[in-house]
Amino acid sequence: MSNLDQRSLSILLSLVKLFIASGKPVPSRALAIIHNLSPASIRISLAYLQKLGLLTHPHHSAGRIPTDKAYRIYADSIIKQAKLSKKDELTINRSLLGSKPTSIADFMERTSQLLSQLSGNVGIVIPPSPAQDILQHVEFIKLTEGKILVITVSQSGIVRDRVIHLDTHFTQDELHKTARFLLDNFKGLTIQQIRDSVLKRLAEEKNLYDRLLQNTLLLCNDALQAQTDKPEVYVEGTSTILSKPDFIDNTQKLRELFKIYEEKEKLLKLLNEYLKEPTTAGVCIRIGSENSIPTMHSCTIITSPYSYGKNAFGGVGIVGPTRLEYPRLITIVNYIARIFERVLNDTSNFTE
Q1: CA 172/CA 150 separation, integer angstroms
Q2: What is the pTM of this model?
Q3: What pLDDT score was predicted for residue 312?
Q4: What are the domain boundaries of the chain?
């Protein structure tokens, strides 16, 4: 932005606003009226901005449209000044604070639905990683030979379950002893800390334990590894992309986007990367080609992290086309993250 003179910057920002509002290439005469300049002067400025890679000219007779670089300049220019409207604030408060959620899972689902509803795009909630959970309770239930159901309850009440497959066979009594061993020795630690400690004991003390205890420790590690490997993300509103003019004429792009939403591992990895980055005004914005996954080069992702307890964090966000209502959606995502954080950290809000 520092390379642009004030007039060029002002014209660029006006063009981006007009294109976001209409979705149509912006003609020089529209900008001439706004800035009280001649169409010829505007065309000179537009040619300069296009040379810088900030605009494209789809047809010779048509107006200009902004590139990802132009959207970036626009987003950076408004991010600190954007204000949440009273209407959006009331809607968010009513939805997230108006009634007590039945469970943490219910609250996360409700939040992703609200993000999609308010933005008209895809709403996403990323729970804290299972590896960050502080263990409160664990159960191992034998289903069949080699197949075991693992249930963990975090200190804050998040319940996770996963079926694991093992070559080693255990009786139900051995599984009960394993769970008791875990709770007696590791309760109050995160899942990641437990895994590290289990592996350390296996390496340092394997000659001191009998075979049963070695197998018990091995079972603990495998079970907890399965819990942390399970991708979790709440996604709502994927069908909204079908109504976006930015995507509707490109069936290949639509197929690729739907595939990303179905393959949650890739989406979750991408979102977790953004949640670790520094934020401005509480959000991280990645526009078009700034996204590391090529399929998402036609999208903007706005995320905001939230903290959970002492060690855990997750995030909320929206995914839509690059032509977004940036000022409003930035404030919505940030405010929802702050309300979400407050409710989530108050365990009295949940009945499970």
Answers
A1: 12
A2: 0.83
A3: 67
A4: 6-78, 86-127+232-349, 131-229
